[in-house]
Amino acid sequence: MLVHGYGGHFYGAYFPLLAQAAANQGITALALNMRDHDNGPKVSDFTDNRTDIAAGVDHLHSLGIRKIVLLGQSMGTNRVLYYQAAAADPSIVATVLVSGPGNLFQWNAWQFGPEKAQQSVDDARRMCTAGHDTELMLVDLGPLGKALYTPRYLLSLRGPDAKSDPYKNISNVKNPVLILQGKADKLIETDIAERLRKAAIDNPKLTVDYVDGADHAFSQQQSVLMERVLGWIKAVVPE
Question: How far is CA 163 from CA 41, 44, 169, in A?
């Protein structure tokens, strides 16, 4: 199951090629549109990701599939880790994390400095306290442009104590995990994959794989990504 990141959709980036390559190897592929897909205003709550992914899991179960690999791209890594931490779903047998941004409050602090990152949180909290939690506020996302968030959405995703924190959630994932990070990725800090590895302290089945020349979307390295992801799945998922 392929889960996109911020501003993405089920047919974006390498998803169609990866899904076709998986199908050619006898692996069923399903790509989801999450409820906040594309670039419109973000009005949900990060915890809604559990419901969205569960709908995809239920659909695969209805097809008779009982072993599911979750792949998250960018912010999708936070989504799939949260789902597993919250749902403890035994049908998820492996996890692939591609270009994970890490903790999103920390990402904001890396982009803008801690004071500006905290200011956005404080603004959102004030709006919530005043009863305006569903109104829209303009949020600066640096290289990703500007976006309209509700205060509730911002706090659930980019607050310092948000449930989107992948370092907390990965500690609850016990199935095999593959972390792929491009060495030419300028949208995330260079040590995110290593931070995730360290956070998964009780998981001996975790692999970190760095890809030379790969950017955030693996735009020039799609064939390498497909080879490594599908090869790893074949190696770790029992028949």
Answer: 20, 14, 8
Closest CA to 221 of 89, 40, 98, 87: 98
Q: Which domains does the chain show, CATH number per domain? A: 2-103+164-236 (3.40.50.1820), 104-161 (no CATH)
Question: Helices 114-129 and 151-158, interaxial angle, to 10°?
Answer: 140
pLDDT over threshold 80, residue 239: no
Q: Can you tell me the distance from the alpha carbon of 131 to that of 84, in angstroms, rounded to the nearest whole number?
A: 32
- pTM for the model stands at 0.96
198 class by beta-carbon count within 10 Å (0-12 exposed, 13-18 middle, 19+ buried): exposed
In 3D space, the residue among 221, 140, 156, 138 whose CA is nearest the CA of residue 185 turns out to be: 221
Please provide residue 83's backbone torsions phi and psi, each rounded to the nearest 5 degrees: -55, -45
CB 194 within 8 A of CB 160: no
In this predicted structure, the answer to whether residue 238 has a pLDDT above a threshold of 90 is: no
